[in-house]
Amino acid sequence: MSAITIRFPKTLHQEVRRLAEEEGISINQFVVLTLAQKVAVMQDRQKPLSPAEQLAYLERKAQAAPKDETLASFLEKHALDEEPAPEDRLD
Predict the structure, then answer these.
(1) Residue 84 covered by a domain
(2) Alpha carbon distance 2, 11 (integer Å)
(3) Are residues 40 and 64 both part of a single domain?
(4) For the chain, what is the domain count?
(5) Model pLDDT for residues 27-57, shown as the tens digit of each residue
(6) Do 55 and 40 belong to one domain?
């Protein structure tokens, strides 16, 4: 096993402590389990997003953008300058 030091906000520490106590485990066990769950989710997300998922992601990002920024201007700033793969094209 490896050991690391992590600094995080006091309020988050208090919440982690409370949740660990509710589960009857140590803070260390809670953090390890939580991190393992997040890693598993992220590893699962390595598979490509479907076109519908890509569009939903871009729409969420556009909604979070400043109100004067349109989806088109957002895409101009953030989209890659390459054609989508054939399987990613919308009919």
Answers:
(1) no
(2) 26
(3) no
(4) 2
(5) 988 898 888 887 777 776 666 667 777 778 7
(6) no
Candidates 25, 38, 24, 30; CA nearest to 12 is 30
Residues 60 and 38 in one domain: no
Instruction: Say whether 65 sits in a helix, a strand or coil.
Output: coil
DSSP state of 47: S
What DSSP designation does 66 have?
Answer: -
d(CA 35, CA 2): 14
End-to-end Cα spacing for the chain: 50
Which of 49, 70, 1, 61 lies closest to 29, judged by CA? Answer: 1
Domain range spanning residue 62?
Answer: 51-79
Amino acid at 8: F
Q: Decide: pTM greater than 0.70.
A: no
